[in-house]
Here is the input.
Amino acid sequence: MLIARYRGRFHKRGWLPLAALAVFLYLLPQASKAAAEVSHTISFPGDREQVFLVRSEFPVSAPVTELLMPNWTPGSYLIRDFAANINRISALSADGSGVSLRKISKDRWQVDTGETDTLVVDYEVFTPDLNVSTSWASQLFSLINGASVFLYTPQTSDLPQRVDIVIDKDRGEYFTAMPATVDGNGFRAKDYDELVDSPIAVAKAPVYQFVHQSQEYVLLNVGENEFWDGEQAVRDVEEIVAETQKFWRINPLERPYWFLNFIIDGKGGLEHDHSTVMMTGRRQMRNRNDYVNWLGLVAHEFFHVWNVRNMRPAALTNYDYQNEQYTSQLWLAEGLTSYYDNLIMSRAGLITPKEYMELLAKSIHRLETTPGRLLRPVEEASLDAWIRHYQPNANSLNSTISYYTKGAVIGFVLDTYIRKASKDRRSLDDVMRKMYELYSSDPYGNDALRKVVVDIGGEDAGQLLQSLLTTTAEPDVDSALDYYGLQLNRGAILVTGEPGEAPLTSDLGVLWEDGHPGLVVKAVLNGTGGSSAGLISGDEILAIGNERLTRDNLESLMTSFSPGEQTTLLVSRRDRIMELTIKLDVAIPDQFSILLKSGFDKRDIARLERLLGQDPRE
Ligand SMILES: [Zn+2]
Here is the structure.
């Protein structure tokens, strides 16, 4: 399909000269004649970085009006207390006279709006963090995520929300999936939810567009540099889009979809109805594994258009921006999306079958090396996203399991189970499409997917799913792999890639802190020698046996000691030197690998081809 440099066909806006800013600042509120909408104008102070100046105008009808700043943003389950970033706030009535405003809680203000029909609020928002869930104001580029920037009132959150941005041309242009206003000068979201769901990028950045089956798409590469090939990236994005649309067979998009890609040495992505914000490394495209990670991110975020944006757990239907909203279904929303992002890449021919198997082995390795999988069922891990997944600490690996990782492995095991039970006539793909058919307009309850699984895969498949979600039973990956003539090698791997008898390495059972010259314990894994020896996070390990232990000789020393051997550790704990006795473990390899079983035959090839969308021998 057509791939071209951006030609101004989409919702991109130019800059307003500084003179316009000056005029704007002297204008009195225009409120009384305004239509029933909320309007927000953003500008940048000339003398500071990391700050947005916001003027919001709200229609009001009560003598007292409450203003609120969200505490979190959908898709990222963490209380972020965005109100903490408001430096200054003041209020005016429609005629420009000051009105009394007082803070009543961490995220609320009360304003005496008296007789006025419009409340004008001027506030200054500091942007301390640059990530996909927050906002960032700088000369080089800016990102506006609505929940962290815009105030709302409960009475006006259903009204259209207009946004104007006042910038000088040195900052570039602004880009968003939000529809343009009729006058062409700003954007207009149909309500506060859509405003929050419509991130805005401000930057000088190349834009690439393509059309797939009459649907328009745009890739914005903020920070594109000599290490990033924008033309190649957009070609690959188009393959992902085509494969994902083919998967779902129905296109819910109502206007151009934007991939807002920030090549700024950040990471992560956040999904929206008509866009996604992604962050990536500046040299990410120069390393094959890193680039596959980025493609996986694209596939993941785009899959979310269906799975979580349009087909949503009931608990996330009406957003409460002030409080946590709990769902046990993030293993479906995130985990199954993670299962499919790799499959979409394979089916689009962007990764080889071998690369797919490496990614699958990686997920299984991550699951099986996390002791917390034996403590917390994945549905509970989902409910605890707010206090565990998004707030990791030294005990996280022991106390919880990632619903991304376990959800993806459950996806593989369940998919295989359905394929096997139906003699390859049905698969998890059918389950997902049926879910979409049933729940794209009405949100789904906690038992919805299990019922669809029973419907498509049979009662036993439903029971398997139930036990994988509500207990800590381990997903049987070995049986699943066996169905395709494959096996997992959990042991040491020789350089040749064949399973074999590599020398065993011993291990302390800890993770190390980065960024310290010495070996500082970050986390101690349950059930290991380190745990029994009494190590705790923060311990600096100085020596093992009579040998000084350093980052440089860690690996060779661990190979010199035999697993099972008892020895001593010299430890510095809060500057006190102590000696601990440890029985060393067998080191688990850094990775597992998936291999062909003997007897791998044509039937296995056919099964893998149906799963991967390509001949596994390629
Ligand atoms: Zn996701």
User: Anything to note?
Assistant: The mean pLDDT is 93. The pocket of zinc ion is lined by residues 271, 300, 304, 334, 337 (CB under 6 Å). The chain has 16 helices and 29 strands.
